[in-house]
Amino acid sequence: MRRGPLAMNPDMQSNSSDLTPGFGGLRVVAFESRMAAEVAAMIERRGGVAIVAPAMREVPLEDNRAALDFGDRLLGNQSEFEVVIFMTGVGTRALFAAMETRHRRADLVAALAAITTVARGPKPIRAMRDLGFEPSIAVPEPNTWREVLSALAAQVELKGKRVAVQEYGVSNHELTAGLEARGARVTIVPVYRWTLPADRAPLRAALNAIASGAADVAIFTSSNQVTNVIQLADAEGIGAAVKQGIARMAVGSIGPVCSAQLRAYGLRVDFEPEHSKLGHLVKEAAAQAASILSARRATAVRIEACASPNPQRAPASNAPRSPLADHPMMKACRREPTPYTPIWLMRQAGRYMPEYRRVRERHDFLEMCRRPELSAEVTVTAVERLKVDAAIIFADILLPLIPMEVGLHFEKGDGPVIDRPIRTEADLERIPDVDVAALGFVADAIKLVHRAIGATTPLIGFAGAPFTLASYLIEGGSSRQYQATKTFMYTQPETWHRLMERLARVTADYLKMQIAAGADLVQIFDSWVGSLGPDDYRRFVLPHTASVIAAVPADVPVIHFGTVTGNLLELMREAGGDVLGLDWRVDLADAWARLNYSVAVQGNLDPIALFAGVSEIRTRAQAILDQAGGRPGHIFNLGHGILPETPVDHAIALVDAVHEMSAR
Ligand code: CP3
Asked: Is the pLDDT of residue 120 over 80?
């Protein structure tokens, strides 16, 4: 386009004709690559401090190895794929552009016409039509992985089928797990048009500036830039902090497509320029940034407090705001400042307590769980005795196995036993679908506790995470090596995913029942997940735990707990939860820094420290408080459950010490 002298780029105009206010020293982040020097000059000419960090590099088509390999296999002697899922329009086009560097489009289209093709939504459909073919299956709205899976499964028996999934940028672990659960063999075809720059140091520095509040304005000029910025932030483990940082800044976008991408990541767009040009965007930013920021900073505290690290959670329950919302326990879950560090102890109602033993002498453990008045009594007694900041309903993570009819019972000294463990697909088929109404006694107990202490003390509902439940179901009881569990996972991955899906569904329903009955927050116990390496966690566990956590309404805090999880913390955070449980095998300060303070943390005194004298207990508690450094979002707890031989007065001394030493 030719530009007349009067329609010049605004940055070329003389200062005398340009009356827009300047940046006045604000720090402005831009993500240009080719135009890096120009944008820095534009920002500085208008009085800003430029932080320019290239976020993209174009990938030559012939470097798309996965795409080229897919093309070769598609046209091979016998097509290797029976189903191809096209997830995005841009990716579908990029995949073809890459394949067409080697093959003729007509041959590719003919090969696809002979098999089942799935379009996730209107954009891939349009791309496919432009390329000359129609999808066999068009996935209905809202076009999430769930609809992809159900639309496909309704038309194709997936068992044994070879399925390719085109991806553009974002992997979808849930879709892969869902396909594998139905017996498909999945090949992922990642397609890249743009990738991160080879030297990421400037981008990392810019992200850190954003996360730490050392930047005021951000300008984005393409949707790929947005994707790369957020993806690098996530990969660096600072995704939530960067998003919160951007939410505090003045944010400009070059145009509607880029703005849509920002919004897709939950980010607000403050302005777009009248014309989609870099110079206009910088000018608009200089004109508006100061007033946007002063309005934003007035409400910044509230925004920060509400930002959830789990944007994918179910909508808030719309329940009336509980009077306990401002209790230190609840505030700590939201990483808000509290007058002291709240504390409770896992297994606080248990055998170490004489009051518990007295009830237990007359009743079997499962009977205690089944009788709401007994369960409520031991729950409340523990709170009153210890003066802790939360109650946890007396129950057990294994209760949902009762309606599964696998023969759960507790043997004296041996812990839980499952008479008919799950070892094969046929075992899994035998398990009836669980209606959590069968566990209504837990809801009744919660209501009784609520009536007794609900006005003063938050009540924690809880459940086992799918992996830890599966380990009991498969091993038939407690285990040291998880040999049967892992063998199951490695040799029968489809059945494994099906089992995990079922456990995830029951667990989500069970938690929702507890919340409806009055639980103020919930804890998910993945006690034994630390037995896995990160790859196995990501593939076999993460999608299922994530689906449980996503089902919990966003206004009900979730504590995500495990032990021996030093190697898994980032992945567990990815699975979700407002609070991550830490055991004593990690240093709390290190672990929290590694998580970039993007979640609250709970822990992490060694339960055996309670066997030492009171002065040693105080020293160790102080060391943990020092590691937390008074930062909002620490809930004190043991790193695992309190042991039956623990002296009660030592547990009481710990609670008192934490309250006293953390008072602010
Ligand atoms: O924290 C609390 O006070 C609430 C009650 C609670 C119990 N179990 C009561 C219980 C909670 C939160 C649990 C969770 C639980 N149960 C977990 C996850 C927590 C962890 O320790 O990692 C697990 C793995 C279980 C399964 C379970 N229940 C086992 C392995 C055992 C036997 C071992 C043991 O500690 O006795 C149980 C029994 C059990 N659950 C008891 C209690 C008070 C002891 C029962 C008795 O009195 O004999």
From this structure: yes
Using 50, 70 and 90 to split pLDDT, how confident is the model at 18? low
The β-bridge partners of 638 are: 605
Which pTM was predicted?
0.65
CB contact at 8 A, 215 and 209: yes
Taking the C-alpha atoms of residue 214 and residue 208, their distance in angstroms, rounded to an integer, is 8
Beta-carbon contacts of residue 261 (< 8 Å; ≥ 6 apart): 223, 226, 227
Helix (H, G, I), strand (E, B) or coil at 528: coil
Q: Under a CB-based contact definition with an 8 Å cutoff, are residues 86 and 166 in contact? A: yes
Do 373 and 359 touch, CB atoms closer than 8 A? no
Q: Which of left, alpha, beta for 109 (phi over 0: left; psi -120 to 50: alpha)?
A: alpha
Looking at residues 7-29, what average pLDDT do you find? Answer: 64
DSSP letter assigned to residue 620 = H
Which residues have a catalytic role annotated? 347, 351, 360, 396, 472
344 lines ligand 1 (CB under 6 A): no
pLDDT tens per residue across span 638-653:
999 999 999 999 999 9
Nearest alpha carbon, ligand 1 atom 34:
415
CA-wise closest residue to 377 among 511, 363, 436, 412 = 363
Which of 501, 571, 499 shows the shortest CA–CA distance to 533? 571
Pairing of strands 391-392, 137-138: unpaired
Q: Which residue's C-alpha comes closest to atom 1 of ligand 1?
A: 347
CA of 561 to the centre of ligand 1 (A): 14
> What is the residue whose two structure tokens read 């609670």?
655
Strands 600-605, 579-581: pairing kind: parallel
Shortest CA distance to 640 belongs to which of 490, 485, 530, 553?
Answer: 530
> What's the CA gap between 624 and 626, in Å, rounded?
5
* Cα gap 557→551, rounded to integer Å: 12
- In 455-549 the beta strands, taken as DSSP E runs, fall at 459-464, 521-526
Rounded to whole angstroms, what are the CA distances from 633 to 339, 559, 562, 606?
12, 12, 18, 20
Residues 522-546 have pLDDT tens digits of 999 999 999 999 999 999 999 999 9
- CA 350 to ligand 1 centroid distance, Å: 8
Cα 15 from Cα 654, distance rounded (Å) = 67
Ligand 1 neighbour 254 (Cβ under 6 A): no
Q: How do residues 199-249 score in pLDDT, each as one tens digit?
A: 899 999 999 999 888 899 999 999 889 989 998 898 888 888 899 899 999
- The whole-angstrom distance between residue 547's C-alpha and the CA centroid of its chain comes to 9
